[in-house]
Amino acid sequence: MVYIALLRGINVGGNNKIDMKLLKQTFERVGMNDVVTYINTGNIIFSSESLSKDELSMILEEAIHNDFGLQIKVMVRSVDDVREIMNAIPDTWKNDKEMSSDVMFLWDEVDNESVLENIVMKPNIDTVKYTPGAILWSVDKKNITKSGKSKIIGTKLYKQMTVRNVNTARKIYELMQAQNS
């Protein structure tokens, strides 16, 4: 089975620095196969057989702690999980100079449509939707300062998600599909 490990909070603002080549070696050392990293923010595609996503998360968190001395949360999602999220993203959404669109991958503890009750959305500015596994959020860049998106930073919910822009999320899925074929 092909998986993505989404690491929360590495190589952001000079904190929790991890070299992707060394991280790839860590994954391989603990038995992950076909390991590919994508950009520097902790996106690792790999394959593994017979372990659950929870078991994989625990193994990878422990390996990162042992090899780098960091307590990093690792979210593991299968290619099928990511396919469902990708199918929910409107084709028109992008991350460019005109639009800011994000996939807020949710940890299992908060993965429920009721999470939308805990965020500030601005009508006619923010487009927000829940899909199993993620909150999808888009706003025109001209309205970014009026958006409720920045208000989620620092909240309890924010600590239970890891965010990727839609361009990154689509590329991750493309790499997963290539490995899955």
TrEMBL record:
SUPFAM superfamilies registered for this protein in UniProt: SP0830-like
Pfam (any one): DUF1697
InterPro entries noted in UniProt: DUF1697
Domain of life: Bacteria
Gene3D superfamilies attached to this UniProt entry: bacterial protein sp0830 like, SP0830-like domains
Protein name per UniProt: DUF1697 domain-containing protein
Lineage of producing organism: Bacteria, Bacillati, Bacillota, Bacilli, Bacillales
